[in-house]
Protein backbone atom coordinates (compact mmCIF):
# COMPACT_ATOMS: atom_id res chain seq x y z
CA UNK A 1 0.00 0.00 0.00
CA UNK A 2 1.58 3.33 -1.04
CA UNK A 3 -0.78 5.15 1.35
CA UNK A 4 -1.10 4.74 5.12
CA UNK A 5 -3.22 7.35 6.83
CA UNK A 6 -3.24 8.21 10.51
CA UNK A 7 -5.49 6.34 12.91
CA UNK A 8 -7.58 9.05 14.61
CA UNK A 9 -8.19 6.80 17.61
CA UNK A 10 -4.49 6.51 18.44
CA UNK A 11 -2.95 9.60 16.81
CA UNK A 12 -1.72 11.83 19.63
CA UNK A 13 0.74 13.70 17.41
CA UNK A 14 -1.54 15.49 14.95
CA UNK A 15 -1.18 16.26 11.28
CA UNK A 16 0.77 19.47 11.76
CA UNK A 17 3.28 18.12 14.28
CA UNK A 18 4.79 15.27 12.29
CA UNK A 19 8.33 15.26 10.99
CA UNK A 20 8.97 14.97 7.23
CA UNK A 21 11.92 14.30 4.95
CA UNK A 22 12.06 17.95 3.88
CA UNK A 23 12.15 19.13 7.51
CA UNK A 24 14.83 16.60 8.36
CA UNK A 25 16.95 17.73 5.43
CA UNK A 26 16.44 21.40 6.31
CA UNK A 27 17.58 20.72 9.89
CA UNK A 28 20.68 18.94 8.61
CA UNK A 29 21.40 21.84 6.24
CA UNK A 30 21.25 24.24 9.20
CA UNK A 31 19.19 24.21 12.42
CA UNK A 32 18.72 27.98 12.20
CA UNK A 33 17.40 27.58 8.64
CA UNK A 34 14.83 25.12 10.02
CA UNK A 35 13.89 27.64 12.73
CA UNK A 36 13.22 30.43 10.25
CA UNK A 37 11.23 28.28 7.82
CA UNK A 38 9.34 25.94 10.14
CA UNK A 39 8.94 27.67 13.49
CA UNK A 40 8.76 31.25 12.21
CA UNK A 41 7.03 30.08 9.01
CA UNK A 42 9.05 32.42 6.80
CA UNK A 43 8.49 31.76 3.10
CA UNK A 44 11.53 31.72 0.86
CA UNK A 45 11.20 33.51 -2.52
CA UNK A 46 8.90 31.63 -4.90
CA UNK A 47 10.68 31.37 -8.23
CA UNK A 48 9.08 30.11 -11.47
CA UNK A 49 10.98 26.76 -11.48
CA UNK A 50 9.22 25.75 -8.24
CA UNK A 51 5.84 26.12 -9.94
CA UNK A 52 6.94 24.75 -13.30
CA UNK A 53 8.24 21.63 -11.55
CA UNK A 54 4.78 21.08 -10.06
CA UNK A 55 3.26 21.64 -13.50
CA UNK A 56 5.52 18.97 -15.01
CA UNK A 57 4.59 16.45 -12.33
CA UNK A 58 0.86 17.09 -12.76
CA UNK A 59 1.01 16.82 -16.56
CA UNK A 60 2.93 13.53 -16.39
CA UNK A 61 0.54 12.07 -13.82
CA UNK A 62 -2.48 12.98 -15.94
CA UNK A 63 -0.94 11.13 -18.89
CA UNK A 64 -0.12 8.11 -16.71
CA UNK A 65 -3.74 8.01 -15.51
CA UNK A 66 -4.97 7.68 -19.08
CA UNK A 67 -4.65 4.59 -21.27
CA UNK A 68 -3.75 4.18 -24.96
CA UNK A 69 -6.50 1.56 -25.03
CA UNK A 70 -9.17 4.07 -23.96
CA UNK A 71 -8.00 7.51 -25.02
CA UNK A 72 -7.32 8.46 -28.61
CA UNK A 73 -4.21 10.46 -29.46
CA UNK A 74 -6.18 13.59 -30.36
CA UNK A 75 -8.70 13.40 -27.50
CA UNK A 76 -9.24 16.59 -25.46
CA UNK A 77 -7.66 16.91 -22.03
CA UNK A 78 -11.12 16.55 -20.44
CA UNK A 79 -11.69 13.03 -21.79
CA UNK A 80 -11.17 11.51 -18.31
CA UNK A 81 -13.14 14.21 -16.52
CA UNK A 82 -15.78 11.73 -15.38
CA UNK A 83 -13.36 8.84 -14.93
CA UNK A 84 -12.72 5.79 -17.09
CA UNK A 85 -15.75 3.71 -16.11
CA UNK A 86 -17.90 5.09 -18.92
CA UNK A 87 -15.22 5.03 -21.63
CA UNK A 88 -15.39 2.19 -24.12
CA UNK A 89 -12.22 0.39 -25.21
CA UNK A 90 -10.89 1.61 -28.54
CA UNK A 91 -11.02 -0.60 -31.62
CA UNK A 92 -7.62 -2.01 -32.65
CA UNK A 93 -7.35 0.36 -35.63
CA UNK A 94 -7.97 3.34 -33.30
CA UNK A 95 -5.07 2.52 -30.99
CA UNK A 96 -1.78 4.34 -31.64
CA UNK A 97 0.89 1.66 -32.02
CA UNK A 98 3.77 4.01 -31.14
CA UNK A 99 3.53 4.86 -27.45
CA UNK A 100 6.00 7.72 -27.87
CA UNK A 101 3.68 9.45 -30.32
CA UNK A 102 0.66 8.83 -28.08
CA UNK A 103 2.42 10.12 -24.95
CA UNK A 104 3.74 13.25 -26.64
CA UNK A 105 0.28 14.06 -27.98
CA UNK A 106 -1.28 13.54 -24.54
CA UNK A 107 1.35 15.79 -22.95
CA UNK A 108 0.45 18.47 -25.49
CA UNK A 109 -3.23 18.01 -24.63
CA UNK A 110 -2.62 18.64 -20.93
CA UNK A 111 0.44 20.88 -20.70
CA UNK A 112 -0.89 24.28 -21.90
CA UNK A 113 -3.75 24.50 -19.39
CA UNK A 114 -1.62 23.17 -16.50
CA UNK A 115 1.22 25.56 -17.38
CA UNK A 116 -1.12 28.55 -17.55
CA UNK A 117 -2.87 27.63 -14.30
CA UNK A 118 0.50 27.36 -12.55
CA UNK A 119 1.56 30.70 -14.03
CA UNK A 120 -1.59 32.28 -12.58
CA UNK A 121 -0.88 30.67 -9.20
CA UNK A 122 2.70 31.95 -9.21
CA UNK A 123 1.50 35.39 -10.25
CA UNK A 124 -0.83 35.54 -7.22
CA UNK A 125 1.87 34.51 -4.76
CA UNK A 126 2.86 37.35 -2.46
CA UNK A 127 6.47 36.10 -2.41
CA UNK A 128 6.90 35.51 -6.14
CA UNK A 129 10.35 36.30 -7.46
CA UNK A 130 12.08 36.26 -10.81
CA UNK A 131 10.58 36.60 -14.27
CA UNK A 132 8.32 33.83 -15.56
CA UNK A 133 9.09 34.69 -19.18
CA UNK A 134 12.82 34.15 -18.72
CA UNK A 135 12.18 30.41 -18.51
CA UNK A 136 11.62 28.22 -21.56
CA UNK A 137 8.16 26.68 -21.48
CA UNK A 138 9.30 24.31 -24.24
CA UNK A 139 12.06 22.98 -21.98
CA UNK A 140 9.60 22.10 -19.23
CA UNK A 141 7.15 20.64 -21.71
CA UNK A 142 9.98 18.43 -23.00
CA UNK A 143 10.62 17.26 -19.43
CA UNK A 144 7.06 15.87 -19.42
CA UNK A 145 7.82 13.95 -22.59
CA UNK A 146 11.08 12.67 -21.08
CA UNK A 147 9.25 11.34 -18.03
CA UNK A 148 6.71 9.58 -20.26
CA UNK A 149 9.53 8.04 -22.28
CA UNK A 150 11.06 6.69 -19.08
CA UNK A 151 7.68 5.17 -18.26
CA UNK A 152 7.51 3.65 -21.76
CA UNK A 153 10.77 1.85 -20.92
CA UNK A 154 8.94 0.34 -17.93
CA UNK A 155 6.05 -0.70 -20.18
CA UNK A 156 8.42 -2.40 -22.62
CA UNK A 157 10.16 -4.24 -19.77
CA UNK A 158 6.81 -5.35 -18.40
CA UNK A 159 5.60 -6.52 -21.82
CA UNK A 160 8.75 -8.58 -22.37
CA UNK A 161 8.98 -10.10 -18.90
CA UNK A 162 5.48 -10.29 -17.41
CA UNK A 163 4.79 -13.76 -16.04
CA UNK A 164 1.77 -15.79 -17.05
CA UNK A 165 0.50 -15.64 -13.46
CA UNK A 166 0.76 -11.83 -13.23
CA UNK A 167 -0.86 -11.37 -16.64
CA UNK A 168 -3.73 -13.70 -15.87
CA UNK A 169 -4.28 -12.18 -12.43
CA UNK A 170 -4.57 -8.73 -14.01
CA UNK A 171 -6.85 -10.00 -16.78
CA UNK A 172 -9.14 -11.62 -14.23
CA UNK A 173 -9.64 -8.25 -12.53
CA UNK A 174 -7.31 -8.53 -9.55
CA UNK A 175 -6.15 -5.15 -8.24
CA UNK A 176 -3.91 -3.90 -5.48
CA UNK A 177 -5.69 -2.87 -2.30
CA UNK A 178 -4.72 0.69 -3.21
CA UNK A 179 -4.54 0.52 -7.02
CA UNK A 180 -2.67 2.86 -9.32
CA UNK A 181 -4.90 5.82 -10.24
CA UNK A 182 -6.58 4.81 -13.50
CA UNK A 183 -9.82 6.77 -13.36
CA UNK A 184 -11.86 3.71 -12.42
CA UNK A 185 -14.02 3.62 -9.32
CA UNK A 186 -14.31 -0.17 -9.48
CA UNK A 187 -15.27 -3.03 -11.74
CA UNK A 188 -16.23 -6.67 -11.29
CA UNK A 189 -14.86 -9.62 -13.16
CA UNK A 190 -12.49 -9.47 -16.09
CA UNK A 191 -10.58 -6.25 -16.72
CA UNK A 192 -12.29 -4.19 -19.46
CA UNK A 193 -9.05 -4.00 -21.47
CA UNK A 194 -8.09 -7.67 -21.09
CA UNK A 195 -7.16 -9.53 -24.28
CA UNK A 196 -6.13 -13.09 -25.15
CA UNK A 197 -2.74 -14.58 -25.90
CA UNK A 198 0.59 -12.81 -25.26
CA UNK A 199 0.64 -9.56 -23.33
CA UNK A 200 -0.30 -6.65 -25.58
CA UNK A 201 1.13 -3.16 -25.41
CA UNK A 202 -2.10 -1.78 -23.93
CA UNK A 203 -2.14 -4.51 -21.28
CA UNK A 204 1.51 -3.83 -20.43
CA UNK A 205 0.69 -0.13 -20.01
CA UNK A 206 -2.06 -1.01 -17.54
CA UNK A 207 -0.01 -3.56 -15.60
CA UNK A 208 3.07 -1.33 -15.43
CA UNK A 209 1.15 1.80 -14.47
CA UNK A 210 2.72 2.93 -11.18
CA UNK A 211 0.95 4.30 -8.17
CA UNK A 212 1.40 8.08 -8.16
CA UNK A 213 -0.08 11.13 -6.49
CA UNK A 214 -3.44 11.59 -8.17
CA UNK A 215 -3.55 15.31 -9.15
CA UNK A 216 -7.25 15.45 -8.25
CA UNK A 217 -6.81 14.01 -4.74
CA UNK A 218 -7.39 16.14 -1.65
CA UNK A 219 -4.25 17.47 0.09
CA UNK A 220 -2.84 15.14 2.78
CA UNK A 221 -5.08 12.29 1.56
CA UNK A 222 -2.24 10.25 0.02
CA UNK A 223 0.36 10.46 2.77
CA UNK A 224 2.22 7.59 4.36
CA UNK A 225 2.13 8.03 8.14
CA UNK A 226 4.51 6.20 10.49
CA UNK A 227 2.69 3.62 12.67
CA UNK A 228 3.43 5.83 15.69
CA UNK A 229 2.31 8.94 13.80
CA UNK A 230 5.43 11.07 14.32
CA UNK A 231 6.59 10.97 10.67
CA UNK A 232 4.88 11.30 7.31
CA UNK A 233 5.82 11.44 3.64
CA UNK A 234 4.33 11.13 0.19
CA UNK A 235 5.89 9.05 -2.60
CA UNK A 236 5.98 10.49 -6.12
CA UNK A 237 5.86 7.18 -8.01
CA UNK A 238 5.82 3.52 -6.92
CA UNK A 239 6.22 0.78 -9.55
CA UNK A 240 4.89 -2.62 -8.46
CA UNK A 241 4.89 -4.78 -11.59
CA UNK A 242 7.02 -7.90 -11.79
CA UNK A 243 6.65 -8.57 -8.08
CA UNK A 244 9.03 -5.72 -7.22
CA UNK A 245 8.57 -2.45 -5.37
CA UNK A 246 10.55 0.43 -6.85
CA UNK A 247 10.16 3.99 -5.55
CA UNK A 248 10.91 6.82 -7.97
CA UNK A 249 11.07 10.58 -7.49
CA UNK A 250 10.49 13.10 -10.31
CA UNK A 251 12.81 16.11 -10.42
CA UNK A 252 12.20 18.75 -13.07
CA UNK A 253 15.86 19.75 -13.05
CA UNK A 254 19.25 18.82 -14.45
CA UNK A 255 20.49 17.44 -11.13
CA UNK A 256 23.46 19.68 -10.37
CA UNK A 257 24.15 21.42 -7.07
CA UNK A 258 23.84 20.76 -3.35
CA UNK A 259 20.14 19.93 -3.42
CA UNK A 260 20.86 16.60 -5.15
CA UNK A 261 22.30 15.39 -1.86
CA UNK A 262 18.94 15.98 -0.19
CA UNK A 263 17.21 13.89 -2.86
CA UNK A 264 19.36 10.91 -1.89
CA UNK A 265 18.42 11.25 1.77
CA UNK A 266 14.74 11.75 0.88
CA UNK A 267 14.57 8.46 -1.03
CA UNK A 268 16.38 6.58 1.71
CA UNK A 269 13.77 7.90 4.16
CA UNK A 270 11.01 6.76 1.79
CA UNK A 271 12.56 3.30 1.83
CA UNK A 272 12.38 3.43 5.64
CA UNK A 273 8.69 4.44 5.51
CA UNK A 274 7.89 1.61 3.12
CA UNK A 275 9.64 -0.95 5.30
CA UNK A 276 7.97 0.25 8.52
CA UNK A 277 4.51 0.15 6.96
CA UNK A 278 4.98 -3.18 5.14
CA UNK A 279 6.16 -5.58 7.86
CA UNK A 280 9.84 -5.03 7.17
CA UNK A 281 9.67 -5.41 3.37
CA UNK A 282 12.46 -3.49 1.64
CA UNK A 283 11.92 -1.75 -1.71
CA UNK A 284 13.72 -3.39 -4.59
CA UNK A 285 15.07 -0.14 -6.00
CA UNK A 286 15.17 3.63 -5.48
CA UNK A 287 15.64 6.09 -8.34
CA UNK A 288 15.71 9.85 -8.90
CA UNK A 289 14.50 10.81 -12.37
CA UNK A 290 16.26 13.98 -13.53
CA UNK A 291 13.94 15.03 -16.30
CA UNK A 292 16.11 17.92 -17.49
CA UNK A 293 18.79 15.50 -18.71
CA UNK A 294 16.86 12.24 -18.98
CA UNK A 295 18.92 10.47 -16.31
CA UNK A 296 17.64 7.80 -13.92
CA UNK A 297 19.96 7.93 -10.93
CA UNK A 298 19.95 4.78 -8.82
CA UNK A 299 20.11 5.15 -5.02
CA UNK A 300 21.35 2.22 -2.97
CA UNK A 301 18.52 0.72 -0.92
CA UNK A 302 19.36 0.89 2.80
CA UNK A 303 19.64 -2.39 4.71
CA UNK A 304 17.31 -3.39 7.54
CA UNK A 305 20.03 -2.34 9.99
CA UNK A 306 20.41 1.05 8.33
CA UNK A 307 16.64 1.54 8.39
CA UNK A 308 16.51 0.79 12.11
CA UNK A 309 19.31 3.29 12.72
CA UNK A 310 17.60 5.88 10.51
CA UNK A 311 14.31 5.47 12.37
CA UNK A 312 16.05 5.96 15.71
CA UNK A 313 17.87 9.07 14.48
CA UNK A 314 14.72 10.62 13.02
CA UNK A 315 12.66 9.82 16.11
CA UNK A 316 15.32 11.48 18.26
CA UNK A 317 15.10 14.53 15.99
CA UNK A 318 11.30 14.57 16.29
CA UNK A 319 11.57 14.47 20.08
CA UNK A 320 14.12 17.28 19.97
CA UNK A 321 12.29 19.73 17.69
CA UNK A 322 8.64 18.64 17.41
CA UNK A 323 7.52 16.95 20.62
CA UNK A 324 8.09 20.05 22.73
CA UNK A 325 8.60 23.77 22.25
CA UNK A 326 11.99 24.89 21.02
CA UNK A 327 13.54 28.34 21.12
CA UNK A 328 15.90 30.12 18.79
CA UNK A 329 18.72 29.14 21.13
CA UNK A 330 17.93 25.48 20.45
CA UNK A 331 18.53 26.07 16.73
CA UNK A 332 22.08 27.40 16.34
CA UNK A 333 23.37 28.66 12.97
CA UNK A 334 25.58 25.66 12.19
CA UNK A 335 25.35 25.05 8.41
CA UNK A 336 26.72 21.87 6.94
CA UNK A 337 29.18 22.25 4.05
CA UNK A 338 27.78 22.50 0.54
CA UNK A 339 27.97 19.31 -1.49
CA UNK A 340 29.01 19.18 -5.12
CA UNK A 341 26.95 17.40 -7.78
CA UNK A 342 27.09 17.59 -11.57
CA UNK A 343 24.24 17.04 -14.01
CA UNK A 344 22.34 13.83 -13.42
CA UNK A 345 23.17 13.92 -9.71
CA UNK A 346 26.74 12.69 -10.25
CA UNK A 347 28.90 13.42 -7.19
CA UNK A 348 31.63 15.95 -7.83
CA UNK A 349 34.08 18.00 -5.79
CA UNK A 350 32.46 20.01 -3.01
CA UNK A 351 32.43 23.79 -3.59
CA UNK A 352 34.58 26.07 -1.43
CA UNK A 353 31.90 28.67 -0.63
CA UNK A 354 29.66 28.31 2.43
CA UNK A 355 25.92 27.64 2.59
CA UNK A 356 25.42 31.05 4.21
CA UNK A 357 26.48 32.83 1.01
CA UNK A 358 23.19 32.05 -0.75
CA UNK A 359 20.91 31.71 2.30
CA UNK A 360 17.63 33.61 2.05
CA UNK A 361 17.93 34.69 5.69
CA UNK A 362 21.56 35.86 5.86
CA UNK A 363 20.51 39.44 6.78
CA UNK A 364 18.73 38.06 9.87
CA UNK A 365 21.23 35.44 10.99
CA UNK A 366 24.37 35.98 13.11
CA UNK A 367 26.33 34.05 10.46
CA UNK A 368 25.36 36.82 8.04
CA UNK A 369 24.87 40.47 8.95
CA UNK A 370 22.14 39.94 11.54
CA UNK A 371 22.04 39.07 15.23
CA UNK A 372 19.71 37.46 17.75
CA UNK A 373 19.06 40.66 19.71
CA UNK A 374 15.49 40.95 18.44
CA UNK A 375 13.06 43.67 19.59
CA UNK A 376 10.69 42.79 22.43
CA UNK A 377 8.05 45.42 22.99
CA UNK A 378 9.08 48.56 24.84
CA UNK A 379 8.06 52.07 23.90
CA UNK A 380 8.38 54.37 20.91
CA UNK A 381 8.06 58.14 20.62
CA UNK A 382 7.89 59.26 16.98
CA UNK A 383 10.41 61.92 16.06
CA UNK A 384 8.90 65.34 16.82
CA UNK A 385 5.84 63.80 18.52
CA UNK A 386 4.70 64.21 22.10
CA UNK A 387 2.93 60.88 22.58
CA UNK A 388 4.82 57.80 23.73
CA UNK A 389 3.40 54.53 22.37
CA UNK A 390 3.61 51.25 24.26
CA UNK A 391 4.74 48.44 21.95
CA UNK A 392 3.26 44.98 22.51
CA UNK A 393 5.50 41.92 21.95
CA UNK A 394 4.04 39.68 19.26
CA UNK A 395 3.57 36.82 21.71
CA UNK A 396 1.25 38.99 23.81
CA UNK A 397 -1.08 40.08 20.99
CA UNK A 398 -4.65 38.88 21.49
CA UNK A 399 -6.46 38.54 18.14
CA UNK A 400 -9.19 36.19 19.45
CA UNK A 401 -12.05 36.45 21.93
CA UNK A 402 -14.98 34.41 23.24
CA UNK A 403 -18.44 35.93 23.57
CA UNK A 404 -21.73 34.63 25.02
CA UNK A 405 -24.63 36.18 23.09
CA UNK A 406 -28.02 35.70 21.43
CA UNK A 407 -28.71 35.03 17.77
CA UNK A 408 -30.63 37.99 16.34
CA UNK A 409 -31.06 36.42 12.90
CA UNK A 410 -29.89 33.33 11.01
CA UNK A 411 -30.56 33.20 7.27
CA UNK A 412 -30.00 29.88 5.53
CA UNK A 413 -28.14 29.98 2.19
CA UNK A 414 -28.03 26.86 -0.06
CA UNK A 415 -24.62 25.17 -0.03
CA UNK A 416 -23.13 27.94 2.10
CA UNK A 417 -22.86 28.75 5.82
CA UNK A 418 -25.80 30.76 7.18
CA UNK A 419 -25.70 34.52 7.53
CA UNK A 420 -25.74 35.03 11.30
CA UNK A 421 -26.20 38.28 13.20
CA UNK A 422 -25.80 38.29 16.98
CA UNK A 423 -26.99 40.75 19.61
CA UNK A 424 -25.25 41.65 22.88
CA UNK A 425 -24.82 44.67 25.10
CA UNK A 426 -27.33 46.62 22.99
CA UNK A 427 -25.24 46.18 19.87
CA UNK A 428 -25.15 43.90 16.84
CA UNK A 429 -22.39 42.10 14.94
CA UNK A 430 -22.16 39.90 11.88
CA UNK A 431 -20.71 36.40 12.25
CA UNK A 432 -18.63 35.68 9.16
CA UNK A 433 -17.91 31.97 8.76
CA UNK A 434 -14.82 31.66 6.55
CA UNK A 435 -14.04 28.04 7.51
CA UNK A 436 -16.88 25.51 7.70
CA UNK A 437 -14.93 22.71 9.33
CA UNK A 438 -11.62 21.71 10.88
CA UNK A 439 -10.47 18.09 10.54
CA UNK A 440 -14.03 16.94 9.90
CA UNK A 441 -15.64 18.89 12.76
CA UNK A 442 -18.11 21.63 11.83
CA UNK A 443 -17.29 25.12 13.10
CA UNK A 444 -20.98 26.03 13.60
CA UNK A 445 -24.25 24.26 14.52
CA UNK A 446 -26.08 22.81 11.54
CA UNK A 447 -29.32 24.04 13.09
CA UNK A 448 -29.30 27.59 14.36
CA UNK A 449 -32.16 30.09 14.59
CA UNK A 450 -33.18 33.46 15.97
CA UNK A 451 -33.24 33.54 19.78
CA UNK A 452 -30.67 30.75 20.26
CA UNK A 453 -28.10 31.38 22.98
CA UNK A 454 -24.59 30.68 21.69
CA UNK A 455 -20.94 31.04 22.61
CA UNK A 456 -18.58 32.31 19.94
CA UNK A 457 -15.34 30.61 20.97
CA UNK A 458 -12.02 31.95 19.70
CA UNK A 459 -13.57 34.24 17.12
CA UNK A 460 -11.64 37.11 15.54
CA UNK A 461 -13.29 40.53 16.05
CA UNK A 462 -12.75 43.13 13.33
CA UNK A 463 -14.59 45.68 11.25
CA UNK A 464 -15.50 45.46 7.57
CA UNK A 465 -14.99 48.19 4.98
CA UNK A 466 -18.23 49.84 6.08
CA UNK A 467 -17.02 50.08 9.67
CA UNK A 468 -19.48 47.41 10.82
CA UNK A 469 -18.42 44.98 13.55
CA UNK A 470 -17.84 41.44 12.31
CA UNK A 471 -16.75 38.29 14.12
CA UNK A 472 -14.78 35.89 11.92
CA UNK A 473 -14.89 32.11 12.35
CA UNK A 474 -11.75 30.40 11.03
CA UNK A 475 -10.61 26.77 11.59
CA UNK A 476 -9.63 27.56 15.19
CA UNK A 477 -12.97 29.19 16.12
CA UNK A 478 -16.38 27.69 16.96
CA UNK A 479 -20.03 28.69 17.25
CA UNK A 480 -21.69 26.42 19.84
CA UNK A 481 -25.04 26.35 21.59
CA UNK A 482 -24.72 27.35 25.26
CA UNK A 483 -26.93 28.48 28.14
CA UNK A 484 -24.39 30.58 30.06
CA UNK A 485 -21.14 32.49 29.71
CA UNK A 486 -17.82 31.02 30.83
CA UNK A 487 -14.76 32.50 32.45
CA UNK A 488 -12.91 34.73 30.03
CA UNK A 489 -15.93 35.59 27.87
CA UNK A 490 -16.03 39.30 27.07
CA UNK A 491 -18.61 41.88 26.05
CA UNK A 492 -19.19 42.75 22.42
CA UNK A 493 -17.26 46.01 22.70
CA UNK A 494 -14.59 44.92 25.18
CA UNK A 495 -11.90 43.76 22.79
CA UNK A 496 -8.87 45.96 22.10
CA UNK A 497 -9.25 47.50 18.66
CA UNK A 498 -5.77 48.96 18.02
CA UNK A 499 -2.25 47.82 18.81
CA UNK A 500 1.31 49.10 18.44
CA UNK A 501 4.08 46.70 17.38
CA UNK A 502 7.74 46.73 16.41
CA UNK A 503 9.97 44.11 14.83
CA UNK A 504 12.77 43.23 12.43
CA UNK A 505 11.93 43.00 8.72
CA UNK A 506 12.15 39.46 7.32
CA UNK A 507 10.73 40.43 3.92
CA UNK A 508 8.05 42.49 2.20
CA UNK A 509 5.10 41.07 0.26
CA UNK A 510 3.00 42.19 -2.68
CA UNK A 511 -0.15 40.83 -4.26
CA UNK A 512 -2.58 42.22 -6.81
CA UNK A 513 -5.61 41.29 -8.86
CA UNK A 514 -8.85 42.42 -10.42
CA UNK A 515 -11.84 42.99 -8.13
CA UNK A 516 -15.44 41.99 -8.75
CA UNK A 517 -16.08 45.51 -9.98
CA UNK A 518 -13.46 45.05 -12.67
CA UNK A 519 -10.99 47.45 -11.06
CA UNK A 520 -7.39 46.47 -10.26
CA UNK A 521 -6.27 46.26 -6.65
CA UNK A 522 -2.94 45.74 -4.91
CA UNK A 523 -1.85 45.15 -1.33
CA UNK A 524 1.57 45.37 0.26
CA UNK A 525 2.79 43.82 3.44
CA UNK A 526 5.76 43.17 5.66
CA UNK A 527 6.66 40.17 7.81
CA UNK A 528 8.33 41.09 11.11
CA UNK A 529 10.16 39.10 13.76
CA UNK A 530 10.62 39.93 17.43
CA UNK A 531 11.93 37.95 20.38
CA UNK A 532 8.51 36.36 20.94
CA UNK A 533 7.38 35.42 17.42
CA UNK A 534 6.41 36.78 14.03
CA UNK A 535 3.60 38.81 12.53
CA UNK A 536 2.53 39.83 9.04
CA UNK A 537 1.19 43.36 8.55
CA UNK A 538 -0.78 44.12 5.40
CA UNK A 539 -2.52 47.12 3.89
CA UNK A 540 -3.68 48.63 0.62
CA UNK A 541 -0.87 49.77 -1.64
CA UNK A 542 -1.65 53.47 -1.19
CA UNK A 543 -1.97 53.16 2.61
CA UNK A 544 1.77 52.61 3.08
CA UNK A 545 4.14 55.60 3.21
CA UNK A 546 6.85 55.91 0.55
CA UNK A 547 9.29 54.87 3.26
CA UNK A 548 7.91 51.32 2.89
CA UNK A 549 9.61 50.96 -0.52
CA UNK A 550 13.04 51.41 1.10
CA UNK A 551 12.67 48.54 3.59
CA UNK A 552 15.25 45.77 3.48
CA UNK A 553 15.72 42.53 5.39
CA UNK A 554 17.19 43.28 8.81
CA UNK A 555 15.72 46.79 9.18
CA UNK A 556 13.67 47.39 12.33
CA UNK A 557 10.38 49.29 12.23
CA UNK A 558 7.44 50.22 14.45
CA UNK A 559 3.90 50.18 13.09
CA UNK A 560 1.36 52.00 15.25
CA UNK A 561 -2.44 51.77 15.51
CA UNK A 562 -2.96 48.53 13.61
CA UNK A 563 -5.93 46.19 14.00
CA UNK A 564 -5.46 42.45 14.46
CA UNK A 565 -6.52 39.55 12.29
CA UNK A 566 -5.69 35.83 12.34
CA UNK A 567 -5.92 32.58 10.44
CA UNK A 568 -5.34 29.39 12.41
CA UNK A 569 -1.98 29.87 14.21
CA UNK A 570 -0.96 32.91 12.16
CA UNK A 571 -1.49 36.31 13.80
CA UNK A 572 -1.81 39.13 11.31
CA UNK A 573 -2.28 42.89 11.48
CA UNK A 574 -4.03 45.32 9.19
CA UNK A 575 -2.88 48.81 8.33
CA UNK A 576 -5.88 51.07 9.00
CA UNK A 577 -6.75 54.75 8.70
CA UNK A 578 -4.53 56.40 11.28
CA UNK A 579 -1.85 53.68 11.20
CA UNK A 580 1.73 54.94 10.85
CA UNK A 581 5.10 53.30 10.15
CA UNK A 582 8.44 54.41 11.62
CA UNK A 583 11.94 53.12 10.89
CA UNK A 584 13.80 52.38 14.13
CA UNK A 585 17.11 51.24 12.63
CA UNK A 586 18.67 50.16 9.34
CA UNK A 587 20.52 46.91 8.81
CA UNK A 588 23.39 48.73 7.12
Structural features:
alpha+beta; OB fold (Dihydrolipoamide Acetyltransferase, E2P); 5-stranded mixed sheet; 4 domains; 588 residues; 24% helix; 5-stranded mixed β-barrel; 9 helices
Question: How would you characterize the overall build of this protein?
Answer:
The chain is of the alpha+beta class. The protein folds into four domains: 154 residues, no CATH class; 119 residues, no CATH class; 97 residues, Nucleic acid-binding proteins (OB fold (Dihydrolipoamide Acetyltransferase, E2P)), CATH 2.40.50.140; 83 residues, OB fold (Dihydrolipoamide Acetyltransferase, E2P). 24% of the residues lie in helices and 25% in strands. The protein contains nine helices and 25 strands. The strands form seven sheets. A five-stranded mixed β-sheet has the order 1-4-5-6-7. A five-stranded mixed barrel has the order 12-13-14-18-17. Strands 20-21-22-24-23 form a five-stranded mixed beta barrel. A hairpin with a 2-residue loop joins strand 23 and strand 24. The radius of gyration is 28 Å and the shape is globular. The protein starts with 20 loop residues before the first helix and ends with a strand. The model has no long low-confidence stretch (mean pLDDT 94).
Amino acid sequence: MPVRLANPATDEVGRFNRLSASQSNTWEDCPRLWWYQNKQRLKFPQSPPLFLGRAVEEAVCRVLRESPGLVMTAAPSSVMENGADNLLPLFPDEIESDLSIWCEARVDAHWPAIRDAMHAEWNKNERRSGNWHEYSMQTYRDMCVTACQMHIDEVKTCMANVSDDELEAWRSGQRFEIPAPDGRSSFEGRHPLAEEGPCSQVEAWEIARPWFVDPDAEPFSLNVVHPDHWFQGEYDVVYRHGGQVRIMDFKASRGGGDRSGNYVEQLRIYAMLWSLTHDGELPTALEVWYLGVGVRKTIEVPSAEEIASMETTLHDLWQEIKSEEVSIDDCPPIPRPLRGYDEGGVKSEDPSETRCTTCDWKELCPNGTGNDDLPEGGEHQPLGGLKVYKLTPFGELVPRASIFCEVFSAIEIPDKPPNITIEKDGGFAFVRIIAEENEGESTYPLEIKKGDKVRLVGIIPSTNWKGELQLKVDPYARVIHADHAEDGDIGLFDFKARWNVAGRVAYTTYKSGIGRNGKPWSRKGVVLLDATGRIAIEGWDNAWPNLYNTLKQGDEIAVLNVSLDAWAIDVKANLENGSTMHVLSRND
